[in-house]
TrEMBL record:
It is an enzyme of class 1 (oxidoreductase). NADP(+) binds at A71, V72, K73, P74. The keyword Cytoplasm applies. This is Pyrroline-5-carboxylate reductase. SUPFAM superfamilies: 6-phosphogluconate dehydrogenase C-terminal domain-like, NAD(P)-binding Rossmann-fold domains. Its EC number is 1.5.1.2. Pathway: Amino-acid biosynthesis; L-proline biosynthesis; L-proline from L-glutamate 5-semialdehyde: step 1/1. It is found in: Cytoplasm. Keywords: Amino-acid biosynthesis, Cytoplasm, NADP, Oxidoreductase, Proline biosynthesis. It catalyses: L-proline + NADP(+) = (S)-1-pyrroline-5-carboxylate + NADPH + 2 H(+); L-proline + NAD(+) = (S)-1-pyrroline-5-carboxylate + NADH + 2 H(+). GO terms for cellular component: cytoplasm. It comes from Cyanobium gracile (strain ATCC 27147 / PCC 6307).
Length: 272
């Protein structure tokens, strides 16, 4: 079902585009319904041409919409709040406008303090939304009724799986799902480097690393396997996989990945 409301977009960075592009390309969001605001005229012209949507440097252009996607950097949030208040004071009376924030670490309490008069939602999407394989965690502020919740769920469902989560769980969710693609990309790159060192051409090594990761994920999910079960399936006594796993354990890969997720979650809390 297409998104029915005009949507303002404050900040058109990588995450906002990752969410918008699949919706626009699939016709689930009309380009004429998007009102975006960015900091410079040059960026407005470039992104307007790239996306085919209305992009302006006038903040009121976006904040006047009944639904606003807030996608600036977390440290910019206080700078954009006055324009939101001005737009709200000029708006006709009616339904409380909706603010959907994708800012890492910015709590609902802070959103509601900075943007009074708006119903607030925290959303944590990840970049696989670009290929409609994303994951989005949602936490709801005060006064967001079920009809609006369903509207927001439908928006993010167009680009992947959507989960309602208690707000304290959003930090580890972000660490696993939003930072996780970078961790897995590093693993894929390293595996390909190893294959190149072993004699494979780099383009072939990269292709095989990507396909191996994709196939492994499909097998884990398709057969509902615990990762340990899959590890045991391909590890024969004194075999090649056992030799490789021994080296990974010796190098501390398991501990390094655990600490990477915990560090990303802690950084998300610090950003608040």
């Amino acid at each position: 079902m297409p998104w029915s409301d005009t949507i303002g977009v404050v900040g058109l960075g990588r995450m906002a585009r990752a969410l918008l592009l699949p919706l626009l390309d699939a016709g689930l969001l009309e380009r004429s319904a998007v009102r975006a605001v960015v900091a410079s005229e040059a960026s407005a012209r470039r992104l307007g041409d790239e996306l085919g949507v209305q992009v302006s440097t006038d903040a009121a252009h976006a904040w006047a919409a009944p639904v606003v996607l807030l996608a600036v950097k977390p440290q910019q949030i206080e700078a954009v709040a006055p324009a939101a208040a001005a737009a709200l004071s000029a708006a006709p009376s009616g339904a409380e406008p909706l603010l959907i924030s994708v800012l890492a670490g910015v709590t609902l309490a802070r959103l509601q303090a900075l943007f009074p008069g708006r119903a607030c939602v925290r959303a944590v999407p990840n970049t696989p939304a670009l290929v409609r394989a994303g994951l989005t965690g949602l936490s709801w502020g005060e006064g967001v009724g079920e009809a609006r919740r369903e509207q927001v769920r439908r928006l993010f469902a167009q680009v992947g799986e959507v989960l309602d989560l208690p707000e304290p769980q959003l930090d580890p969710f972000l660490a696993l799902t939003s930072s996780g693609p970078a961790f897995l990309a590093l693993v894929a790159e390293s595996m390909a480097d190893g294959a190149v060192a072993g004699g494979l051409p780099r383009p072939l090594a990269m292709h095989l690393a990507h396909r191996t990761m994709a196939g492994t994920a499909a097998l884990l999910q398709g057969q509902e396997l615990h990762p340990g079960q899959l590890k045991d399936m391909v590890t024969s006594p004194a075999g090649t996989t056992a030799a490789g796993l021994r080296q990974l354990e010796r190098a501390g890969l398991r501990s390094a990945l655990i600490e990477a997720v915990l560090a990303a979650a802690e950084r998300s809390r610090q950003l608040a």
